[in-house]
Amino acid sequence: MNRRSFGIAALAASVALATAACGGDETGAYGAPLAKVKLGYIGDYNGASLLAIANEKGLWKAHGLEADAKVFTNGPLQIQAIGTGDLEFGYIGPGAMWLPASGKAKVVAINTLGNADRVIAQPGITSLEGLRGKTVGVPEGTSGDMILTLALKKAGLTKADVKIVPMDAATIVSAFSSKKIDAAGFWYPATAAIKKQVPDLVELAKNSDFTDQVSFPTAFVAGNDVVAKQQDKTSKVLAVLREAITFRIEHPDQAAEYTAKLLKVSVDQVKADAANSQAIPLADLDRYTADGTIAKWLTGMNEYFVGAGKLTGAVDPATYYTGDLFTAAGK
Question: Rounded to two decimals, what is the model's pTM?
Answer without folding.
Answer: 0.85
